[in-house]
Amino acid sequence: MAFIDPHIHMVSRTTADYEAMAAAGVVAVIEPAFWQGQPRTTAGSFQDYFATLVGFERFRASQFGIRHYCTIGLNSKEANNERLADEVMEMLPLYLTKEGVVAIGEIGFDDQTALEEKYLRLQLELAVEVDLPILIHTPHRNKKRGTYRTMDIIEDLGIAPHRVVIDHNNEETCKEVLDRGYWCAFTIYPRTKMGNERVVEIIRQYGTERVIIDSSADWGVSDALAVPKTARLMEQAGITKDQIEIVTYQNALAAYSPSGQFREEDWLNPTPIDQRTLFQGNSVLRGGQSPRVDEAGEELIIR
After folding, report:
1. Any domain includes 286
2. Which of 118, 241, 282, 286 is 20 to 30 A from 64 (CA-CA)?
3. Where in the sequence is the domain holding 168, given as residue range(s)?
């Protein structure tokens, strides 16, 4: 079975994660732009970060047989620095048109301030202008209030819910998100309420329509294999393979394919891996390591 992890922060992960993910069946990932654990202080740091998402990280993933895509946006945590936020907003249109950018995001609320709402609205309007899907980050504090408020703003701007993925849902938000027509994504964090077992129960209760599973693995305690692990648990719990494929593959493909950038043929008919290839003179290998060089067609994935 092939998997898509549609929310994972691979710049924080190792090449060993890429190797393990590929071995477990992950064929494509989407990396949302987000904060880096501490506030950035200059627009240049955002510029370099966005350049990495559309540049070296795409190359690094390809060296291990995984297609890398990303979303670009000003995250809610850093939207409260108005001077810096204005500078970032000026550069967003440039990066939103880059190859591999499948949505604007992740955007939304953190502390639910007036500035966060200001830049959420501006970025929602920008998504309409550039005709891209939207990835919403829901707050970890006062989640229900922040999620409902976000949907109200989206609807106030006249944006169709099927263009929007709302992530980090839990039991108190998922029904409203689904009832209002949005894509409803669940992040699987190890040793938390929203762990693998709980998501299995949510699938049983709400079904698979517009439900997406992701890992959101980053620099914190997280699991880059959360999607394939949850799929195995679902199978053990009696959920059918067709249902598992819908929430771990098909729904992500459907949600992000309107970007025109997220194409199944990219990973079904990939360029053969050749680790002798360099990115701006840089290799994923270190001294003395033997490069992996695949023959044409060797990596074709047939589901």
Report:
1. no
2. 241
3. 3-279
The pLDDT tens digits of the residues spanning 178-220 come to: 999 999 999 987 765 455 678 888 889 999 999 999 999 998 8
Residue 139 counted as domain residue: yes
State how many domains the chain has. Answer: 1
- Looking at the domain assignment, is residue 49 inside a domain? yes
Q: Write the pLDDT tens digit of every residue in 269-290.
A: 988 999 999 999 899 998 889 9
CATH number at residue 81: 3.20.20.140
Euclidean distance between CA atoms 1 and 210, whole angstroms: 20
Residue type, 27: V
152-166 pLDDT per residue, tens: 999 999 999 999 999
pTM value is 0.94
